[in-house]
Specification:
The chain is mainly beta. The chain has three domains: 169 residues, Jelly Rolls (Sandwich), CATH 2.60.120.380; 120 residues, Jelly Rolls (Sandwich); 120 residues, Immunoglobulin-like, CATH 2.60.40. Helices cover 5% and strands 42% of the residues. Helix 1 packs across helix 2. The N and C termini lie far apart (67 Å).
Length: 425
């Protein structure tokens, strides 16, 4: 593409963003021009911007728009840009480096522009994220028009200069908004991440941001802890907020918020009532993001599972979930070669168990107190503090399974799995 042709067809855009911004949008390289022309001073004259680096923008010569009233910080000398979303997910608008420019203290607002400049709907606003410059992430829909308003912070003094605007658009992060909250369970939940998430609303602690939402139906009437402290975990400077969700996402009642509890990781304990819906918001200090594993517990622990090698043949028993009061532990058999499977629970029979058919390694590792037919079961742990510190064992069997006991001693061949010893904590 020739620069001359581009200039001839894009005079309005040149006025708005300068030569560097145009070349950035066209995928070409250029250095900043010695002078930048009139900025897009009002929403009606918003200049187009694109995914990637929109470099060399300016608010020099701009006025302060009469409205809308800034949502997160006072601003002056604002300029306007138009962005059409390229994805359904989260778009991030940032005046942070690489190029920075001479406008040192920015405020960024993003509006849904579906209704035009006269009916703007605020989607997000940010004042300081990287020093005095700003970044805001908002949920967007592919093909929808959004307006971006950028100005200098404050009203007492007026500053103008150049700045860069970097835009990224990525598919939605699971649980990015309350309405799409991820179901959470008592115990140690599956690993998650806040990377790429937007900021839903203001936090009462941590100057939080980039949040992911969970829904949790309490299993015990007791103080419940939501934590990234071990055995929970977080790889970044985290924050947690818990809400009573009885009224739904539109009527949330904050029960508490925590920034740092164990180092930079967060932990929050609130009273819960069995059967009541709660929402948990996971975020980061100053918008920090990363991976985590959320622990929900009434005891401060998640229990533990040990393996007693009593198995024979290919049969294997696995556990999922946390042996903690109010939690649920699922058991499943794999490596089945016979015609009938079952799982039983009971007291541990000690290391090595009771041999069933020497010299085969098959051994009974758990008493057959509770017997369940089939290859999988889910077992809830009662909300009984008296169970804490106790142990229950689980084992599986496969009638007619190969590689274990022969026809003797019970008249048919079978295999058994290793025994799982669960300590309830």
């Amino acid at each position: 593409m020739r620069v001359g042709t581009l200039l001839a067809g894009s005079i309005a855009v040149l006025r708005a963003v300068g030569v560097v911004g145009i070349l950035a949008g066209a995928g070409l390289a250029a250095s900043a021009p010695s002078g930048l022309l009139a900025p897009p001073d009002e929403c009606a004259t918003a200049a187009p911007v694109f995914d990637g680096l929109n470099a060399g923008l300016t608010n020099v010569g701009s006025t302060t728009s009469a409205g809308p009233v800034p949502a997160c910080a006072a601003l002056n000398s604002d300029v306007w840009f138009a962005y059409t979303a390229t994805c359904t997910g989260v778009a991030t608008f940032s005046t942070c480096p690489p190029g920075a420019g001479t406008l040192g203290d920015t405020v960024v607002e993003v509006f849904d522009g579906t209704g035009g400049c006269g009916a703007l709907v605020l989607a997000g606003c940010d004042d300081d994220t990287c020093g005095l410059r700003s970044t805001v992430a908002v949920a967007v829909t592919a093909g929808t028009l959004y307006y971006v308003r950028i100005g200098d912070f404050g009203t007492a003094s007026i500053a103008t200069g150049t700045f860069d605007l970097t835009i990224t658009c990525a598919p939605a992060v699971p649980g990015d908004e309350c309405a799409g909250a991820i179901p959470a369970f008592t115990g140690l939940n599956a690993p998650g991440s806040t990377v790429g998430a937007s900021t839903s609303s203001t936090w009462p602690c941590a100057i939080g941001g980039t949040d992911v939402w969970y829904s949790y139906v309490a299993t015990c009437t007791a103080p419940t802890t939501f934590t990234f402290c071990p055995p929970g975990s977080a790889t970044y400077d985290s924050a947690i907020e818990v809400f009573d969700g009885s009224g739904g996402c539109g009527a949330l009642l904050s029960l508490g918020c925590n920034d740092d509890s164990c180092g930079l990781s967060s932990s929050l304990t609130v009273p819960t009532v069995a059967g009541t819906l709660y929402y948990v918001r996971v975020g980061g200090f100053l918008g920090a993001s990363g991976g985590y594993a959320l622990l929900i517990t009434t005891t401060g622990a998640a229990g533990s599972v040990g393996v007693n090698p009593t198995g024979c043949g290919s049969l294997s028993l696995a556990a999922a979930g946390s042996p903690t009061p109010g939690g649920t532990v699922g058991f499943s058999l794999s490596g089945i070669t016979g015609g009938g499977t079952f799982i039983w629970l009971g007291s541990s029979l000690g290391p090595g168990g009771i041999p069933l058919c020497p010299p085969a390694p098959c051994a009974l590792g758990a008493m057959l107190s509770f017997l369940f037919p089939g290859p999988a079961i889910a077992v809830p742990v009662p909300c009984d503090p008296g169970l804490v510190g106790g142990t229950i064992s689980a084992q599986g069997g496969d009638i007619l399974g190969a590689g274990g006991c022969g026809v003797l001693p019970f008249g048919f061949p079978f295999t058994v799995s290793g025994t799982l010893d669960l300590v309830i904590l």
